[in-house]
Amino acid sequence: MYKFMNQFREIFKGEEVPAGRKIGLSANRRFMNDYLKLAAKTPSQPLARFCEVSKVAELRSQLSRRIGWTSILVKAYAILADRKPELRYLFRNWPWPHLFDPQRQICRIAFSRVINGEEGVMFHRLVNPHEMSLEEIQEQIEFAQTASIEDVPIFSLHHSFCKLPGMIRKFVWWMSLNASGAWSASLTGTYGFTTVASLGATSIHPPSLGNIVMTTAPMQADGRLRVTFVYDHRVHDGLAIAQALKELEEIVGTEIAQELTGYYTDQLPPQRQAG
């Protein structure tokens, strides 16, 4: 120990070390700190598949109205979970370990919004997206991207929650995750979506509170899209998730493609009848 301290003093002798400064956590950073502490308790695992989506990519490029990949995948997953209810199951510890089926799909989509000059993550909420058209989902996404925080009720609620004292936030988190399965599903969602693909990056393992979180990589030149499911291993095994990814690809290539084809047909000028 004595030798170590002498070497330490010798190496750093005469070096000017700035005092630095402490920076308090903003409301957004406090929320993310809470979120990550809770997500660390979930034994989540990412599993990815390169999905063939070139047909849908071509249809998207022909539309006058933008339909984003977020809208497409959010709806496709909701269709899938409606057919396979186990994909919306949530693991619950209280009052004893069990699975809970909310019997509906609730998607939480992550958005980056600026509050008080700082970017922070907020989650928009869609209930039963499989019952919505792609255009309706896209409108909701664009509204969440551009409307003021005060005009989006779930964002305004989020901002108010972030400013609460730590002990109150901790109590609200516990109630949200433990008091009621229906309440927990309503607040945290049965699945989530987040992506940074528009910036050419890939989120490898986004955090999860126990629901399946879906993310994507940038589109490949050959028309394939890497889709990742981050899942709770207490609820699902890898083989089931791999099968779910395969079925998601099939839904995108059939039902989603059919809806996009309908939009393309509707935008064509009417054919003039001969004679």
Please explain how this structure is put together:
- The model has no long low-confidence stretch (mean pLDDT 92).
- The protein starts with a helix and ends in an 8-residue tail after the last helix.
- By secondary structure, it is α/β, with parallel strands linked by helices.
- Helix 4 packs across helix 5 (134-146) and helix 7 (166-179) crosses helix 8 (181-188).
- Strands 1-8-7-6-4-5 form a 6-stranded mixed β-sheet, with helices on both faces.
- Strand 7 and strand 8 form a beta hairpin.
- It has a single domain (26-266), classed as 2-Layer Sandwich (Chloramphenicol Acetyltransferase), CATH 3.30.559.10.
- It has 9 helices and 8 strands.
- It has helices spanning 2-12, 27-39, 54-62, 69-83, 134-146, 153-162, 166-179, 181-188, 238-267, and strands spanning 44-52, 90-92, 98-100, 106-115, 118-127, 191-193, 212-216, 224-232.
At CATH level 2, the architecture is 2-Layer Sandwich
Q: Give the biggest sheet.
A: 6 strands, mixed
Determine the number of helices (DSSP H or I, runs of at least 4 residues).
9
How many separate domains make up the residues?
1
- The spatial strand order of the largest sheet comes to 1-8-7-6-4-5
Order of helices and strands: HHEHHEEEEHHHHEEEH
Q: Identify the overall geometry.
A: globular
Low-confidence stretches: none
User: What is the mean predicted local confidence, pLDDT?
Assistant: 92
**Percent of residues in helices:** 40-55%
Classified in CATH, the superfamily is Chloramphenicol acetyltransferase-like domain
For the secondary structure, the number of strands is: 8
User: Ends: how far apart?
Assistant: 101 Å
**CATH class, please?**
Alpha Beta
Given helix and strand content, the structural type is: alpha/beta
- Please report which band the strand proportion falls in: under 5%, 5-15%, 15-25%, 25-35%, 35-45% or over 45%: 15-25%
